[in-house]
Amino acid sequence: MLTRSGLGAIVTAVVLVGLGLWWNYEELVIAGIGVAAMVIAAIWVAQRPLRATVTRRIGALRVPRGDPINVVYRVRNASRFRTGRATVIDHCDEQQCRVPLEPVVAEDAVDFFGNIATVRRGVFPIGPFSVQRIDPFWLAVGDRRDDAVGQVTVHPKVYQLVGPQGAVRVVDSESVFRRASADPMSGFVSMREYVEGDDPRLIHWPTTARTGTLMVRETVEVRRPEFTVVVDSAEHVATPEDFEEIVDVAATLAAHAIRSGLDVVVRTTSAAHPGRPTPILDEGTVLDFLTPVQQTNTDESLSVAALFAGGIDHTSVVLVTGPTGPSSRFANLEQTLVVRIGSDAVATTGIAVAARDAGEFVTRWRTWDQ
């Protein structure tokens, strides 16, 4: 393939030969032929294979969205001559990287490093890549393709939620730690006299009638508190760019809750990918679940209420939605927080936190309850 300089050289050669023949000026004809010969030589040099083999090694097969995919290209020269300069062109999910290859001396191997940007979640192929050579006069470019294809998983980015109160507000608030009276897994320990501030629902009326003193049941929680993160996947509540930030926020909240010792459930309003109402035990499973989640139209979306047909007495819920969300409402607001994420997100009545992106959300969350 000719560069712009190569195309210009061809036009020049044609003009020189044409004028030389028209004016019967053989020096112009010779000059034109010389320029054409230079271009032909440049094409031959550019098309020659590199005197080396180029192999690719992917640094990590799983990367957070927004972090680059680190790639190493090893150039191994087994010949007796030094290699020429070249450029490796590689791509992944419409993102491209160009890595210049410097000459490698005979019987040596050198690593060259590059990276490919990531802008969205998913499982993507890397490659095939090509090795591009340009002749010394920059007249022609030659590409030799290597069909080796790798694969990388781009999962949601998890931010660190730390802070004296804001980071753990949902973890240690009474909306998360379930009331014993509403939890069938609470175990009876003993009876004691009623103290002001006790939940009246814990009063044991048969014992109270027998003793003449208000008595309450002491119970203990025999299972860990549960925390549910819901991703609002309706396409009309957020742009595709904002939705990537929404999923990052959901992954961050779920990962933080797991580290805090809660049973974590992750759901979405996508009918094709709603998740299960059972706890997820580790962060890796959360990331694997959220990686393929995509936005859905109205016909393919579930209401938030449909995800909690059995009620939410046993859990607290954080609904992560877009600037115009949520796509549906849930009647029980006492144990539900709504978070809006997106470039136009605004905190209004019923919205706990609003932020432009996941990074700003972390900042707001840390100071929310200070």
Brief descriptors of the model:
17 strands, elongated, five-stranded parallel β-sheet, about 375 residues, alpha/beta, Rossmann fold, 4 domains, Immunoglobulin-like
Q: So what's the overall shape? A: elongated
How many angstroms separate the termini? 63 Å
Count every helix, treating DSSP H or I runs of 4 or more residues as helices: 7
Task: Write the CATH architecture name of the largest domain.
Answer: 3-Layer(aba) Sandwich
Q: For this structure, what is the CATH homologous superfamily of the largest domain?
A: von Willebrand factor, type A domain
H/E series: HHEEEEEEEEEEHEHEEHEHEEEH
The portion of residues forming beta strands comes to: 25-35%
Please give the largest β-sheet: 5 strands, parallel
Low-confidence stretches: 163-186
Strand order of the largest sheet: 14-13-15-16-17
Q: Can you identify the CATH class of the largest domain?
A: Alpha Beta
Query: Would you report the number of β strands?
Result: 17
Radius of gyration: 33 Å
Q: Structural class, from secondary structure content?
A: alpha/beta
Number of domains: 4
Q: What does the average pLDDT come to?
A: 85
